[in-house]
Write a sequence for this structure.
């Protein structure tokens, strides 16, 4: 069972309290009605499935209820970082640093 | 029953773990005596019994091979009664207790004479890959022959026929240091960590701590025997309040972030367990640091006919002698490639057991060993191997040959043969922690590499062979101070060999994996047939796939394959070890989560009233809802018919409390509703309610429900019963991440409101006198009104709303008042001839009106347009969830399935939900399916069956005749609209 740090509660809590909410940093455009089919497909359906670092969303469903973002390594399942929704995506340099 | 109390092979001078008290048990119906502290295997060996099982494939007679969890042969069915019976228990692990019943497995009619042994004669047929080669064709043979055959032949032991009456517990624990394994290394590490003030959990799968020290009586630690030293360590650890010692507790799994799962067997060894105690306890431990001290497992020698009863591991023989006071034979041969077997031979010789010869596979042994052997008068032959053994149910001779000799053999009469090809460091937990074992060429074994988690391997499992070194390593592993004691008579275990002995010309089966009957020749065949990766060899031969997970066989199998492939061992690879380390009962995993505790049951405040009225219930998600209220002698159909018709003619009262409710509040509440729902919410006035549909962004229906607008900043949203949690989750997602600038707050109020629906022509007459604060006259409070008022003096939200098509109200009151208000409503309703109705009548009445149920009439691929709800999709809103998705080419394409009604041509015939619809019933199978039935009921009100269905181009097929083929008939149906009753909706406005 994973141990996840909720950036709102600032505490490590067991995975039982959380729900995964899919890939992070996917922007739902305000002018969605005008998107091309291809752009909509890419936005809504296509997801990364990396062997390595993934940026994903979690919700502290049985805790504070907040959605937040996490940097997780899919091989080791290690959480390299969690951060609040709305904060910028970590740079590649930062991710490299976190993996050390 | 005849009793055998001789225990002829008991050695009184030894047996550190054995008490004086006799324990009586049965094995295959025969009564045996053992001693307190015996395992089933040691007790049987004490009585001279080696034959304990039959092998899985060839049904060969097998004796016990090991003295620990790695035992592949002696698997038993251990029973207290029909409900408390466990298959595949290793005799070398199970402690005996008075009255224990043990049965050997995989034999018929008896262990001595087994019909299945014919498989042994057919063994040329049952080679590696037999299943892949044989069970291919013809297809019909699968059902009639192969499947039943495999079913009967497969599986070991018997599952209990009755429900398990025992309790299983589950505990979470946290500690600074978890030590897995309580041998020398584990005890040292636990003590060192505890001395530093760390909280420590130390577990060991055995009943006692000390590990190999209890099997080796020669070793001295600062003058103490291993047993004395371990006992002293345990005494000190028990005295510390930061240490928890768990015996009979196996570390079965190592998961992410140092979550380690322990299985504690609490009562398996007790004759009359305390009923207060759980049978087993599953510990989920989150450890700051994990210290793996699993030790090493001795390997057998791979030579022809190495599986006769009486042939066993040398270390096991030493353990049976020193721990249990049992000699494994009177005339014991030795075949080894490792020094450690000599210690076993010398111990046995000391107790008067004849050791006719030690065959050492190596060309050289040390002078020291030779000198000791000479002292005992034991003949040592080096550079030789055993190429043949005899004895049907027990080994009685072995034939040996020098490696270099082409012939010229020597035979020895024996009644047991102990072997050792070396010791394999246990990498199971390290591998489970996702570590990658590294090959150590110098000692030709795999050792732990880097630790991917906060863990460290120490002792034999880390390849540290000398006890003196282990003292340093174990203490330093936890940051403690190392003290090197004076060690005497430590036997090194690093030498040995891997792979098969002898030549390919040898006759007989040289077993690599005993439990799955895999021989050296099977592995050679797999390699010849193209399996070049150990993962393929494993699956093709099933080597290492039995319940012992290849604890003995993996390294041998790997070495044999590597030799034939002419590759270094690490290039052929090592398979990954998986949890659990040893077979673990389902009960242990399930713990308390069964029966009433499997899932919570949600009950409404009115639930008990329905129970008192004799209602039948049905589960709806986690809720238990009243399905119908049968009167004496009524069937379900009778009751539902009566309830529906009473509602339509008079009135009915329905507990709708399970409806999901979400309070949406804030200055941007309306704007938020505009985003979440397909409908427009700007024009809705406070005091009015509206049916809303929620989609996902792909355009498919996600949920629906009626929403009341209480003020310009407050909405009372209802959801489907099963959808409440996911709807709130999706709403939260949008407020938190997509529209964080919106000032809107969401609160689940499902369980705060009790909801009482009163439906039918007399609904107003029932409700009106109870309501104050609002005038509910028809014109003042029309259909789709909502008001905050009082009902029975209790603050309430009153909706005029209908899911039946009748005049209807839904009273929401705080849940604590739910039952009181319900009873007040009922006190008015009953004298007027109204009834209480359940979910089944509710379903029938909503279907008569063509109201959909999300999840029944929709399945996640249905758009609002498909469901005939285009009127509820706003056209002018710039954005809502699903707007873009609804424009996708496939969603606007022609030929989509649309929701329509069906009437059967024979009005009495009720369709089955899920039944498929075809246009031409005469076409050949497989027929072209044009749709399927989503809802189907008998409508007593209309005196005919009604159904709804998803049908290709359904809206264009009104009036067409279609067909529903069923196994015994084809039912003719006519396509209709979905509203079967009161199509103009006049009754709503009464």
């Amino acid at each position: 069972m994973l141990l996840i740090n909720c950036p709102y509660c600032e505490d490590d809590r067991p995975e039982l309290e959380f729900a995964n909410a899919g890939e992070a940093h996917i922007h739902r455009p305000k002018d969605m009605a005008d998107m091309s089919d291809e752009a909509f497909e890419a936005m809504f359906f296509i997801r990364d499935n990396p062997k390595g670092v993934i940026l994903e969303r979690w919700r502290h469903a049985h805790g504070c209820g907040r959605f937040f973002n996490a940097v997780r390594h899919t091989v080791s399942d290690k959480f390299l970082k969690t951060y609040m929704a709305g904060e910028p995506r970590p740079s590649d340099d930062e991710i490299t640093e976190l993996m050390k | 029953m005849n009793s055998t109390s001789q225990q002829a092979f008991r050695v009184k001078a030894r047996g550190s773990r054995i008490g004086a008290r006799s324990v009586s048990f049965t094995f295959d119906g025969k009564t045996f005596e053992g001693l307190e502290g015996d395992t089933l295997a040691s007790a049987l060996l004490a009585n001279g019994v080696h034959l304990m099982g039959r092998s899985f494939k060839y049904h060969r007679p097998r004796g016990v091979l090991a003295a620990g969890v790695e035992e592949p042969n002696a698997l038993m069915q251990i029973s207290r009664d029909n409900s408390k019976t466990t298959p595949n228990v290793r005799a070398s692990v199970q402690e005996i207790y008075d009255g224990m019943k043990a049965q050997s497995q995989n034999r018929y009619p008896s262990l001595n004479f087994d019909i299945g042994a014919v498989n042994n004669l057919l063994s040329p047929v049952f080679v590696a890959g037999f299943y892949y080669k044989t069970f291919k064709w013809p297809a019909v043979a699968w059902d009639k022959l192969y499947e039943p055959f495999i079913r009967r032949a497969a599986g070991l032991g018997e599952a209990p026929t009755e429900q398990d009456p025992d309790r299983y517990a589950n505990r979470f624990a946290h500690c600074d240091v978890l030590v897995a394994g309580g041998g020398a290394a584990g005890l040292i590490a636990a003590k060192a960590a505890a001395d530093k003030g760390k909280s420590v959990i130390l577990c060991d799968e055995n009943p006692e701590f000390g590990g190999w020290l209890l099997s080796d009586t020669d070793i001295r630690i600062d003058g103490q025997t291993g047993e004395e030293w371990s006992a002293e360590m345990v005494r000190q650890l028990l005295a510390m309040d930061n240490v928890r010692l768990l015996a009979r507790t196996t570390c079965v799994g190592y998961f992410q972030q140092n979550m380690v799962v322990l299985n504690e067997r609490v009562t398996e060894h007790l004759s009359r367990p305390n009923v207060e105690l759980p049978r087993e306890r599953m510990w989920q431990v989150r450890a700051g640091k994990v210290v793996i001290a699993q030790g090493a497992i001795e390997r057998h020698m791979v030579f022809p006919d190495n599986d006769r009863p009486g042939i066993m591991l040398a270390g096991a023989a030493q353990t049976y002698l020193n721990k249990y006071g049992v000699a494994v034979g009177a005339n014991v041969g030795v075949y080894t490639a490792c020094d450690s077997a000599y210690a076993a031979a010398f111990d046995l010789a000391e107790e008067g057991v004849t050791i006719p010869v030690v065959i050492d596979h190596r060309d050289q042994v040390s002078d020291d060993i030779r000198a000791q052997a000479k002292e005992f008068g034991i003949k040592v032959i080096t550079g030789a191997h055993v190429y043949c053994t005899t004895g049907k149910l027990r080994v009685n001779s072995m034939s040996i040959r020098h490696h270099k000799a082409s012939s010229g053999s020597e035979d020895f009469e024996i009644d047991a043969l102990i072997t050792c090809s070396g010791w394999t460091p246990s990498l199971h937990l390290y591998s489970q922690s996702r570590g990658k074992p590294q090959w150590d060429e110098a000692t030709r074994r795999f050792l732990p590499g880097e630790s991917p988690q906060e863990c460290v391997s120490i002792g034999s499992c880390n390849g540290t062979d000398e006890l003196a070194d282990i003292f340093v390593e174990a203490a330093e592993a936890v940051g403690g101070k190392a003290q090197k004691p004076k060690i005497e008579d430590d036997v090194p275990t690093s030498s040995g060999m891997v792979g098969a002995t002898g030549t390919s010309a040898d006759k007989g089966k040289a077993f690599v994996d005993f439990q799955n009957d895999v021989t050296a020749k099977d592995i050679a065949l797999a390699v010849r047939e193209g399996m070049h990766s150990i993962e393929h060899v494993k699956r093709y031969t099933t080597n290492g796939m039995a319940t012992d997970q290849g604890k003995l066989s993996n390294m041998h199998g790997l070495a044999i394959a590597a030799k034939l492939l002419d590759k270094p061992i690490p290039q052929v690879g090592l398979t990954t070890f998986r949890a659990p380390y040893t077979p673990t009962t389902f009960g242990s995993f399930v713990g308390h989560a069964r029966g009433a505790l499997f899932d919570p049951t949600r009950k409404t405040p009115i639930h008990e009233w329905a129970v008192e009225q004799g209602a039948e219930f049905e589960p709806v998600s986690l809720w238990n809802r009243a399905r119908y209220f049968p009167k004496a002698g009524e069937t379900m159909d009778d009751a539902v018919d009566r309830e529906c018709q009473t509602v339509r003619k008079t009135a009915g009262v329905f507990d709708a409390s399970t409806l999901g409710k979400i309070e949406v509040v804030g200055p941007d509440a309306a704007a938020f509703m505009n985003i979440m729902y397909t409908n427009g919410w700007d024009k809705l006035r406070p005091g009015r309610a509206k049916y809303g549909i929620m989609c996902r962004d792909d355009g498919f229906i996600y949920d629906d429900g009626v929403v009341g607008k209480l003020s310009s900043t407050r909405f009372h949203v209802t959801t489907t019963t099963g959808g409440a949690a996911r709807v709130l989750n999706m709403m939260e997602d949008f407020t938190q991440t997509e529209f964080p600038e919106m000032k809107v707050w969401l609160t689940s109020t499902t369980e705060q409101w009790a909801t009482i629906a009163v439906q039918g022509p007399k609904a107003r007459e029932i409700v009106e006198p109870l309501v104050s604060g609002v005038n509910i006259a028809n014109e003042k409070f029309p259909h789709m009104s909502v008001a905050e008022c009082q009902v029975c003096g209790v603050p309430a939200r009153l909706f005029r709303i209908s899911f039946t098509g009748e005049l209807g109200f839904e009273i929401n009151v705080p849940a604590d008042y739910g039952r009181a208000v319900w009873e007040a409503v009922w006190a008015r309703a009953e004298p007027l001839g109204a009834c209480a109705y359940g979910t089944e009548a509710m379903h029938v009445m909503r279907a008569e009106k063509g109201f959909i149920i999300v999840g029944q009439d929709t399945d996640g691929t249905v758009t609002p347009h498909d469901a005939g709800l285009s009127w509820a999709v706003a056209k002018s809103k710039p954005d809502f969830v699903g707007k873009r998705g609804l424009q996708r080419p496939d969603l606007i394409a022609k030929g989509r399935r649309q929701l329509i009604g069906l009437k059967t041509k024979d009005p009495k015939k009720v369709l089955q939900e899920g039944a498929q619809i075809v246009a031409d019933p005469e076409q050949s199978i497989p027929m072209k399916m044009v749709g399927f039935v989503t809802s189907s009921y008998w409508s007593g009100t209309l005196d005919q069956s009604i159904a709804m269905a998803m049908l290709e181009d359904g809206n264009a097929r009104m009036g067409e005749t279609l067909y529903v083929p069923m196994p015994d008939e084809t039912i003719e149906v006519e396509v209709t609209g979905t509203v079967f009753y009161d199509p103009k909706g006049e009754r709503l406005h009464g």
User: Anything to note?
Assistant: Chain A has two helices and six strands. Strands of chain A lie at 3-6, 11-14, 19-23, 53-59, 67-73, 79-84. The interface with chain B takes residues 1-3, 19, 21, 28, 30-33, 35, 37, 40, 44-45, 57, 59, 61, 65-67, 75-78, 85-86 of chain A (CB under 8 Å). Chain A has one domain: 3-99.
